[in-house]
Recover the amino acids of this structure.
């Protein structure tokens, strides 16, 4: 017999237990569902949502000028000279269309088909403006339309008053100003370079669109920024960046390859519409071993790829294999190209535009529209085949590049298989110098990668043997920026690290076999230590990027100073912290290597005697390396989970990271020299 009421966890479960969130409350309750995260990425996503609305106007041919301003007080202002958000009464909501768009989820101008004027847009669910409004403590919309200026303000998604007509004008457009809510975001700190980098892509993608970005955060004077259409009208001398490109994707390819050496002269480009899908592709091969594919769907950067990227890769592999076979450029014994072979050294931008677009998730990181795959496959395949026929010298360079990659892949596989087989014969595949931990749980296991045998000795003695493993490296590892797997695995130090990780490498890489969920780089606080750290980060980024993206890579922060005040011992991790501990006017003695394990007994005795004679004297020891610490010091400052400081390594912008690694670790000297000169003022120099 059925029970009258369902009992759940000891409580009756009925209609009263069902929460009904009204208006924009769902957004404030679960912001991550709409912007992905409430961290820095989600914070900047608010700008993208408002900017995308203006950009969609430009894509429709209704706007050619957008201005983005960073204002004091964490406010962002976006103005465009588009048609202006409609302000007349909405038939269904019975209020102004402006209020409907700003305060209602799934309301927007991108659902009305051809009559809306948006043949193509990046908007997905009509949630952009309303989500930004919901997550802002202040939001203001000013619309210039049909001869009038209309105004409405909001807070946390709720209107402060009705839409009002506040003036007359001959202009048209929309100005949105918002201030993110500190209740939602842990830290509100907009990064000007991040904004410029994102918007630069959009300028390349929409020809003839002028974009101006102004950093007005330093202007703290009282100003009514709502009194002007464009902030630039105020005539202030402020830092700014502007973009305007007529070259489109070809210009973007040139930008990404600025520090690279192209292997062929002509940049491939095609723009064509097929089955109501507009396809635009540009590519160029360079003298490098990594690929850069930059995909867009309705001008939204789809960092996780999707159907358009799948169609492109399939077509690229097939077209090059067909051309190679037709022109007998490869031996039958070599087989054919794989996808990885033809991607090596490739820089490509893929842009598709669809009337009805489907993304996987609200943050639009991956395209799901099936029709994009066949359209890109066909359009690109036909055009690229013609390009190869019309440019035989370029075709020869591209094919030779892919053949070289094919041969390297086979050599690398043989080398890798040899390494792994040899590792297995040496006992559980682990290198002899690895001091492994007792735990078999990757979630709690840590691997400290330390510099030199001296630091390795201290770390092995001072560690928690249950969860902490130590792998000492001798000297600097191979720079893998331009090294293939076979050469890389010939390096003893790199091979030891790969075997210790347990994930294998290349096409057999498996992150689920990762033996440690914390890989901690612990190098000395000097130039050599920084170089080794950079080499290790290059290795992880180029060959183990999923490990970085999973958040498994950390950098240890050992102290720079040990400070003794009588019997009291403190550690300082920066000069500022040292000065704060020491205080002004203190009796200070700088002691080199007071507790160095290699120091003589006589030196230590002299130092201790001096401490007894002058108990108020402060003794400061400057650590130059981890090897100068005894096991107890290394444990309590750098290895103890309760007290240590670790920096997690993540990839905020994969393309920017690619460019920096190219500059710093590549073979071209001029770009590296320019980078160093431009950023020298940011360096902390230890003299």
């Amino acid at each position: 017999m059925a029970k009258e009421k369902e009992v759940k966890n000891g409580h009756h479960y009925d209609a009263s237990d069902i929460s009904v969130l009204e208006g924009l409350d769902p957004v404030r309750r679960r912001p991550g569902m709409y912007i992905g995260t409430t961290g820095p990425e989600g914070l900047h996503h608010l700008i993208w949502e408002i900017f995308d609305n203006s950009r969609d106007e430009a894509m429709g041919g209704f706007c050619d000028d957008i201005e983005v301003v960073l204002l004091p007080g964490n406010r962002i202002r976006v103005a465009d000279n588009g048609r202006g958000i409609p302000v007349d009464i909405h038939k269904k909501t019975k209020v102004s269309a402006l209020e409907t768009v700003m305060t209602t989820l799934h309301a927007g101008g991108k659902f009305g088909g051809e009559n809306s004027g948006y043949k193509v847009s990046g908007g997905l669910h009509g949630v952009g403006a309303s989500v930004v409004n919901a997550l802002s403590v202040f939001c203001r919309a000013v619309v210039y339309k049909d001869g009038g200026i209309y105004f409405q303000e909001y807070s946390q998604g709720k209107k402060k008053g009705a839409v009002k007509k506040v003036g007359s004008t001959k202009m048209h457009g929309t100005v949105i100003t918002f201030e993110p809510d500190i209740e939602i975001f842990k830290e509100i700190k907009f990064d000007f370079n991040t904004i410029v980098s994102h918007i630069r892509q959009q300028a390349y993608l929409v020809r003839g669109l002028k974009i101006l970005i102004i950093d007005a955060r330093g202007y703290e004077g009282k100003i009514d920024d709502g009194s002007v259409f464009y902030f630039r009208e105020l005539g202030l001398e402020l830092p700014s960046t502007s973009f305007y490109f007529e070259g489109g994707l070809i210009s973007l390819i040139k930008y990404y390859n600025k520090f690279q050496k192209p292997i062929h002269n002509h940049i491939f480009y095609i723009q064509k519409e097929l089955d109501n899908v507009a396809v635009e592709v540009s590519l160029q091969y360079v003298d490098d071993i990594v690929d850069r594919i930059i995909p867009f769907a309705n001008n939204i950067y789809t960092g996780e790829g999707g159907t358009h990227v799948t169609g492109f890769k399939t077509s690229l592999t097939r077209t090059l294999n067909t051309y190679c076979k037709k022109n007998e450029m490869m031996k039958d014994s070599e087989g054919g190209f794989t996808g990885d072979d033809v991607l090596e050294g490739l820089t490509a931008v893929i842009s598709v535009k669809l009337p009805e677009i489907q993304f996987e998730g609200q943050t639009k990181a991956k395209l799901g529209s099936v029709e994009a795959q066949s359209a890109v496959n066909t359009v690109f395949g036909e055009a690229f085949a013609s390009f190869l026929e019309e440019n035989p010298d370029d075709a020869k360079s591209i094919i030779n590049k892919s053949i070289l990659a094919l041969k390297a892949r086979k050599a690398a596989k043989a080398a890798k298989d040899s390494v792994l087989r040899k590792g297995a014969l040496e006992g559980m595949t682990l290198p002899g110098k690895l001091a492994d931990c007792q735990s078999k749980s990757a979630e709690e296991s840590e691997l400290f990668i330390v510099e030199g045998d001296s630091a390795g000795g201290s770390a092995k003695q001072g560690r928690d043997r249950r969860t902490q493993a130590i792998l000492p490296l001798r000297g600097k590892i191979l720079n893998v920026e331009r090294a293939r797997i076979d050469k890389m695995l010939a390096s003893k130090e790199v091979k030891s690290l790969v075997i210790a990780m347990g994930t294998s490498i290349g096409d057999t890489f498996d992150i689920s076999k990762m033996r440690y969920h914390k890989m901690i780089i612990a190098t000395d606080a000097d130039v050599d230590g920084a170089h080794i750290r950079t080499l290790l980060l290059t290795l992880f980024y180029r060959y183990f990027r999923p490990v970085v993206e999973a958040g498994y890579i950390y950098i240890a922060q050992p102290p720079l100073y040990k400070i003794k005040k009588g019997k009291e011992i403190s550690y300082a991790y920066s000069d500022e912290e040292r000065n704060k501990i020491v205080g002004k006017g203190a009796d200070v003695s700088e002691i080199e290597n007071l507790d160095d394990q290699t120091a003589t007994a006589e030196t230590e005795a002299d130092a201790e005697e001096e401490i007894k004679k002058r108990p108020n004297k402060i003794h400061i020891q400057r650590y130059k390396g981890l090897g100068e610490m005894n096991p107890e010091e290394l444990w309590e400052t750098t290895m103890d989970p309760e007290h240590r400081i670790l920096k997690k390594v993540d990839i905020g912008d994969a393309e920017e990271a690619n460019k920096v690694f190219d500059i710093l670790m590549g073979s071209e000297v001029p770009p590296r020299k320019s980078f160093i000169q431009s950023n020298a003022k940011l360096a902390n120099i230890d003299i």
